[in-house]
Amino acid sequence: MGRGFVYLVGAGPGDPGLLTLRARDVLARAEVVIHDNLVHPRVLDWAPDGAERIRMGKIGHLHGTPQAEINEALLSHARDGRVVVRLKGGDPAVFGRLGEEAGALAAAGVPFEIVPGVTAASGAAAYAGIPLTHRDHAPSVTLVTGHRRTDGGGGPDLDWEALARASGTLVVYMGIRHLAEVAERLVAAGRPGHTPVAVVRRATWPDQQVVTGTLAGIADRVHRAGLRAPAVVVVGAVVGLRSALAWFEQKPLLGRRVLVTRAAHQAEELCDLLRLRWADPVVLPVIALQPCGHASAVDAALRRLFAYDWVVFSSVNAVRFAFERLDGLGLDARTFGAARVCAVGPKTARALEARGIRPDVVPDRYVAESLVAALSSAAELRGASVLIPRARDAREVVPAELERRGARVEVLPIYENVKPATYPEEGLAALQAGDLDLVVLASGSAARNYADLCTAHGVDPARVPCAVIGPATRKAAEARGLPVAVMPDTYTLEAVVDAAEAYFRGRGRTPENG
Ligand code: SAH
User: Fold this and answer.
1) Intra-chain end-to-end CA distance of the chain, in Å
2) Which residue has a Cα nearest atom 11 of ligand 1?
3) CATH of 257-287+421-507, one of 3.40.50.150, 3.40.50.10090, 3.40.50.300, 3.20.20.70
4) Which pTM does this prediction carry?
5) Is the pLDDT reported for residue 295 higher than 80?
6) Helix (H) and strand (E) counts for the chain?
7) Of the listed 15, 25, 36, 91, which one is catalytic?
8) Is pLDDT above 70 for 197?
């Protein structure tokens, strides 16, 4: 047997952010991923592109793949010498057939490890605002299954009297199908009919639903709400705390599909900011960046950076392309000599610092006008030589203002925005389907290219509200008839996301649930 190895890994209840770091690390090494139906697609993305992905698991109360077949698959891939990740919803040790799967591996002498996950009870408790234990209300929590061992049969065989006596919180997994029977039996065994109950469906997913009630009435309510699996049923006084602690369902960006139009290498940063607020970013770069300018002119200026009084960087991209070119010339940060360096904002400053340059000036606000003010208050501009490496089609405000104050300005276009040669399918599909809540535009050229892309695909751009990063982008967007709904006060991506959140707060969404 080669180096075959099996990781039995908990994928958590849904939200990919709830995966453990160890789970992500072992996924990154996977050659085969055998996963349940309940695993978020983003989690599967953490496996290498070349890894084989196999779906094998249970579907609701019906049999999916028989357990023996899953065990056999684990064994045979491991015997082929492959690194297998068996990815299971929630925690593999909680109603996860860990005993069967690890047992089969142990018996066959296949080495394995177990990586725990956030179980549905924990996920539901956290995202529904229900503490599972509480010093005043619940000294214990019990996890039970709502199914009989032979699945598909009747309700569970549980010691109802003991469960009723325990008086702590009860969490019923697979609890929807036999909910009425479970509730009745608990009441018959002595749990009061007015005991609070919450049924949490698709906990931690953007479409999480919560129905609350009492043991006496919950089955009816769940039936009327049309709630289906997967859901956990939480029984006990702690459920009453939800009215004060619910937080997740009200997130304004929750599940909102947001089109991210930034250049491919910059899209991820915005996606992360959006996902942090539970939005659902869709990437469709409408811009690609490429070096431009006569190589000889660019090279000549870069070779003698030290001869300028000021070098002004107005974007992270300007820093990136300048340094890539310097690198190509075999030069480095020392070429700046005693030239003073200005960065338009904190991100550009960080990009410079990462390359060993601490900017002398970083204006407070990230617009051309405040940059000029900051420069002139730092030093006499009359007669100063200023180099501005930047995008080809950038605005003329900065050079014009600097010249007005007596500076000798040399604008050096070192990169240009072009339309990408191709577009990702998922992004185009979302655009065409009109299946979007917001479009984020971070530059004038993004606004123009996005408008063109809509036209090219017969999409009416007026249908989807736009968030712009600042006034210049707003102007470009409005000139093309795009409906600008969001513009922040400070012109950063963080601020755009904040403003988008404010825009959606209180705006209509699907009917509230209990
Ligand atoms: N190992 C899993 C449980 C698997 S049994 C865990 O630890 O969570 C399948 C049951 O888990 C479902 O019927 C449902 O009761 C529960 N479940 C799994 N994911 C859930 C989710 N996101 N929301 C609510 N219940 C969930």
Assistant:
1) 54
2) 173
3) 3.40.50.10090
4) 0.82
5) no
6) 19, 20
7) 36
8) yes
Pocket of ligand 1 (CB under 6 A): 13-14, 38, 88-91, 94-96, 119-120, 123-124, 173-175, 200-204, 229-232
pLDDT category, 1, cuts 50, 70, 90? very low
**Cβ atoms of residues 374 and 405 within 8 Å:** no
Single-letter code of the amino acid located at 48: P
Residues 6+ positions from 167 with CB-CB distance below 8 Å: 138, 139, 140
What does the pLDDT read at residue 63? 60
Three-state DSSP state, 246:
coil
Look at ligand 1, atom 25, and give the residue with the nearest C-alpha.
231
Q: Given the CA of residue 175, which atom of ligand 1 is nearest to it?
A: 15
What pLDDT sits at residue 153?
63
What was the pLDDT predicted at 379? 80
Torsion angle (degrees, nearest 10) of CA 456, 460, 461, 462:
160
Residue 292's pLDDT band, with cuts at 50, 70 and 90, is confident
Which of 19, 174, 178, 234 best tests ligand 1's pocket when mutated (most atoms within 8 Å of CB)?
174
Q: Name the DSSP letter for residue 293.
A: S
Average pLDDT value over all residues in the chain: 92
Cα 49 to Cα 363: distance, rounded to the nearest angstrom = 43
Query: What's the gap in Å between 199 CA and the centre of ligand 1?
Result: 12
* Owner of token pair 């979007």: 436
Q: Is the pLDDT of residue 447 over 60?
A: yes
Cα 173 to averaged position of ligand 1 atoms, centre (Å): 6
Residue 62: pLDDT over 60? no
If you search the block for the tokens 């598909």, which residue do you land on? 152
Query: Active-site residue 36, yes or no?
Result: yes
8 A C-beta contact, residue 273 and residue 248: no
CATH 3.40.50.10090 fits 290-418, yes or no: yes
Q: Is residue 381 predicted with pLDDT exceeding 90?
A: no
Mean pLDDT to the nearest integer, 157-165: 90
Instruction: Tell me yes or no: is domain 5-118 CATH 3.40.1010.10.
Output: yes
Which is catalytic among the residues 15, 58, 88, 437? Answer: 58
pLDDT for position 138 = 95
Per CATH, the number for 122-249 is 3.30.950.10
Pick from 43, 34, 40, 41: which is nearest to 14 by CA? Answer: 40
Share of the chain above pLDDT 90, in %: 78
- Phi/psi for 41 (5° steps) reads -60, -30
Q: Is 347 one of the annotated active-site residues of the chain?
A: no
